[in-house]
């Protein structure tokens, strides 16, 4: 997923002020069928100084969903920007481990 490509998102999250992190809650299904919409929302968050991705609602994830999260984390790290995971990672953590990408996501805390 080319997360760095900029598109105007349809985001339903409120923009964050400079002192408030942008919190993006992921949907229950983070799969190939909806990853484009999630990508648009995450692109908006890339513009913020601090980004929090809430994983609590995710009940289904596939390779495309994990790849998107890895790309977002890499983009944040490359920009020297903060990224935090919020909520129980559950299925996201299981999928990342199965794909050998658990270290890439660093779901246990600050990235």
Describe the SSE topology.
Layout: E1 22-25, E2 29-30, H1 35-46, E3 50-54, E4 60-61, H2 63-78, E5 82-86, H3 90-98, H4 102-105
Parallel strand pairs: 1-3, 2-4, 3-5
Helix pairs in contact: 1-2
Unreliable stretches, pLDDT < 50, 5 or more residues?
1-14
What percentage of the residues does DSSP assign to strands (E)? 15-25%
Mean pLDDT, rounded to whole units? 84
- Helix- and strand-based class? alpha/beta
**Order of the strands making up the biggest sheet:** 1-3-5
Relative helix content? 25-40%
Alpha carbon gap, first and last residue: 19 Å
**Major sheet description:** 3 strands, parallel
What is the tally of beta strands?
Answer: 5
Question: What tags apply to this protein structure?
Answer:
alpha/beta, two-stranded parallel sheet, 4 helices, 37% helix, disordered N terminus
Summarize the structure.
This protein is α/β, with parallel strands linked by helices and 111 residues long.
Could you characterize the architecture of this molecule?
- Helix 1 packs parallel to helix 2.
- It is built from four helices and five strands.
- It starts with 21 loop residues before the first strand and ends in a 6-residue tail after the last helix.
- Strands 1-3-5 form a three-stranded parallel sheet, covered by helices on one side. Strands 2-4 form a two-stranded parallel sheet.
- Helices cover 37% and strands 16% of the residues.
- The protein is of the alpha/beta class and 111 residues long.
- It is globular, with a radius of gyration of 13 Å.
